[in-house]
């Protein structure tokens, strides 16, 4: 068996560090005991690992190129042993490529978390949009240290345990010899540096909690539970890292006369029995937000604040009328409808003259002793549409 590490790995003497690593990965995939348990193959795998230990170390490689004995530099288990991390890289690729953490010290700066706040708005404001000032309590960059976490005039120093690498080697014995694995340094928690004099304002975290006021523009058409995203307005990350996002969750307060179903508005109008029987013309107010909204009207015209409702003679209680385009603006354009339900009020108290007139009317109509009849429940417009689609 040749003792030349270049020949063992099958690379030339002027091969780059990347070429050496590629050759080792290729052989490790073929010869690893988990793939090929043959005893001869295991011995060859040990030789390949030892050869890579020499050629991957610039000092050992330079010593061998000057005529030194490669095996005395670490072959045969006398040195530090080969890196278990390199074996894992051979099978699964580099740390970052395989989804693991990249080697070397990790940054103190990390992205902050997203924040969620609740905003109560009136139905009109949710339907037609509003701009509100919102007070939020989040982590902000420390002004004393500008996110560095160090006291003024000081700076982090390199960790003496890992010498600024952020990780330390741990050697363990196995049937393959000594296996060296890399673990985050416990002294510096993997940062590669230590803050000897932390900032007093933020205790070295680089951020402090503070209350601030944001101006939030709520678009027209949002509904209960809608979340408005404010990019970069969430929690500032540790070490002065970038801020997360702020989500404003809309909670719509009940309205005394209007309710919302999708982009449609629903309301109920009460009429006297006589008005329902004879018919009438009503002028009723729209949702209050239209008072300040002139965008829906042509230039030069006043905003529409009311709508006309024509009640035909003989209108029944529970009937509905639909006013097209008087509902809630959609986030994707267009606008819903206003659905008006008619409620006919029957008088509960009559004076003698009123009672006399009603009895005369009943006599004229032949309704003094009416025969009651059972009928199917009255269906609203949407119920009738649903029945029509269902056949």
UniProtKB/TrEMBL annotation:
Record PROSITE patterns: DNAJ_1, DNAJ_2, ZF_CR
Binding site for Zn(2+) 1: 142, 145, 199, 202
Keyword Glycoprotein: no
Compartmental location: Cytoplasm
Residues engaged in binding Zn(2+) 2: 159, 162, 185, 188
Residue ranges, annotated region (Disordered): 311-330, 363-391
Pfam family, one: DnaJ
CDD domains xrefs: DnaJ, DnaJ_C, DnaJ_zf
Keyword terms: Chaperone, Cytoplasm, DNA replication, Metal-binding, Repeat, Stress response, Zinc, Zinc-finger
CR-type Zn finger ranges: 129-211
UniProt xrefs under InterPro entries: DnaJ, DnaJ_C, DnaJ_domain, DnaJ_domain_CS, HSP40/DnaJ_pept-bd, HSP_DnaJ_Cys-rich_dom, HSP_DnaJ_Cys-rich_dom_sf, J_dom_sf
Gene Ontology biological process terms, A to Z: DNA replication; protein refolding; response to heat
Cofactor detail note: Binds 2 Zn(2+) ions per monomer.
GO cellular component, one term: cytoplasm
Cofactor: Zn(2+)
CXXCXGXG motif repeats by residue range: 142-149, 159-166, 185-192, 199-206
Molecular functions per Gene Ontology: ATP binding; heat shock protein binding; unfolded protein binding; zinc ion binding
Function summary: Participates actively in the response to hyperosmotic and heat shock by preventing the aggregation of stress-denatured proteins and by disaggregating proteins, also in an autonomous, DnaK-independent fashion. Unfolded proteins bind initially to DnaJ; upon interaction with the DnaJ-bound protein, DnaK hydrolyzes its bound ATP, resulting in the formation of a stable complex. GrpE releases ADP from DnaK; ATP binding to DnaK triggers the release of the substrate protein, thus completing the reaction cycle.
Xref: PANTHER family: CHAPERONE PROTEIN DNAJ (PTHR43096:SF48), DNAJ HOMOLOG 1, MITOCHONDRIAL-RELATED (PTHR43096)
Assigned protein family: Belongs to the DnaJ family.
Domain statement: The J domain is necessary and sufficient to stimulate DnaK ATPase activity. Zinc center 1 plays an important role in the autonomous, DnaK-independent chaperone activity of DnaJ. Zinc center 2 is essential for interaction with DnaK and for DnaJ activity.
Subunit: Homodimer.
Protein name per the record: Chaperone protein DnaJ
Organism the protein comes from: Nocardioides glacieisoli
